[in-house]
Amino acid sequence: MASMNLTLPNGVSYEQPVDLFINGSYRAATGEPFDITDPSTAKLVLTVNGASIADVDDAVNAARAAFDGEWSEITPVERGDYLRKLAELIDRDRALIAAIDAYDSGKPYSVALDADLDESYNVFKYYAGWADKIYGDTIDTSPSKLAYTLQEPLGVCGQIIPWNFPFMMLAWKVAPALACGNVVIVKPAEQTPLSALYFGKIVQEAGLPDGVVNVLPGLGSVTGKALAGHLGVDKIAFTGSTNTGRSIMKSASANLKNITLECGGKSPLIIFDDANLEQAVKWAHGGIMDNSGQVCTSTSRIYVQDGVYDDFAKAFVDYTKKVTVVGDPFKQDVQHGPQVSKAQFDRVLHYIEAGRKAGAKILSGGSKIDGEGYFIQPTVFTEADENASIVREEIFGPVVVISKFATENEAVAKANNTSYGLAAAVFTEKISRGHRVARKLQAGMVWINSSGDSHFGIPFGGYKSSGIGRELGRYALDAYTQTKAIHVNLGTEL
Ligand code: NAD
Description:
The protein is an alpha/beta fold. It has helices at residues 53-68, 70-73, 76-92, 94-105, 109-130, 166-179, 194-206, 220-229, 242-252, 277-289, 309-323, 342-357, 389-392, 408-416, 431-440, 475-479, and strands at 3-7, 13-17, 20-22, 25-27, 33-38, 43-49, 138-142, 145-153, 156-160, 183-187, 213-215, 235-239, 258-262, 268-271, 301-305, 361-364, 379-382, 399-405, 423-427, 445-448, 467-468, 481-489. It folds into 2 domains: 3-263 and 467-483, Aldehyde Dehydrogenase, Chain A, domain 1, CATH 3.40.605.10; 268-455, Aldehyde Dehydrogenase, Chain A, domain 2. It has 16 helices and 22 strands. Helix 5 (109-130) runs parallel beside helix 6. The structure holds nicotinamide-adenine-dinucleotide (NAD). Residues 160-164, 187, 189-190, 220-221, 224-225, 228, 239-241, 244, 247-248, 262-264, 296, 344, 347, 394, 396 line the site of nicotinamide-adenine-dinucleotide. Belongs to the aldehyde dehydrogenase family.
């Protein structure tokens, strides 16, 4: 069965592909089937057929043939046209794709529509613009030599996608890879493969040459692993946990693949006495509670200077209680859906319990929400030991720890006391302090007076165990090209 008719909770019916998308068409998978569950009800939605190792081989062969064939013959301007066409079709289908992601992942439909799909559309448009502006340099060394560089595509790119922003993460990876002239094999997360499978239809309609985009749903331990270790794959771009990133790095070492890893975080948010407290409360709230806390850059550790600590903690809890409407992702006004899966639900509750046992104080929330689905109350801890697991480990749920500091040095030391280094935020009205602290924070992204506001033109990625390489902006072009140096002898004779 290549597809099935699915009716979404908002009443929209459509044909959902459930098989592999290889070489421009859907075909049956030969790997293990796996279940897709609606996290709002914990009920089975459908079963998707996973790609086996042999299916991965087939996709790599199709991608390689496309890379060596038609795709390398077209001009950069034509590549840009294809990306623009993909953007137009995403724009046309944005309501449907947003609803698919809301159903599959539990994120509010309105958020999927206004944030994820808008960003996905813009990312394709943005890289359409880059496609014909990727070139090397001429390098002046001596009158007898002409040296220049070419920025060439890497080839077959495996792209392993997480479940927290299913379609948007696909866009972040596919668009720059194609703009640079690569071909891709997308491996969506097993929790949320539906919008990626639907993307195959968009690729068909846009008329991309067969094999340029392939989509392989499947388990990470089978399909993801086979892709990461495949000798015919030139690059792996991954977003997910640091542990899986480590394992991908090992698999990718077989042929020294180029890798981009966008892994976990435990990002700090620092609030100084002089901050605009009202703004700090709002940004800090979004920084941890958006997407039910399932964001790699979530600012899950809040450090507040002692002069405003009590005021901030009270205002933060009041605001959280007032604005966080938890519930059915398809209901208007809901900003906080369920956790994506039973595994994530259990994991977050386990951390809440561990925090309680370690003696931290719960100011708000602290338990699951009774009823069907994987809903958890937004949870605010204080008075946690800096070594407690809720302070040190990535929870990936709506759980924040608020702690106190006295001096700027103490705040920076606490903020940097983590193996992660994805993002950090600082709130102050003193311009010099904001920039000074931003430079001292060991993180790939620092926000001054905001949190979590990424943009497709600005590089995204982490320091330390939060990853390798950068996505987005012109930096993604480095991640998807390699440099060839050409030496032209203009007269030196031997
Ligand atoms: P994960 O890292 O295991 O999964 C992410 C992707 O990697 C999925 O597509 C998965 O199928 C694939 N994968 C898993 N094992 C693989 C392997 N050995 N080789 C190749 N691909 C593999 O994440 P998870 O288990 O779904 O979630 C666990 C934790 O990961 C979360 O609690 C959270 O802390 C973190 N996470 C982070 C992000 C992020 O945006 N940084 C996203 C999702 C999950």
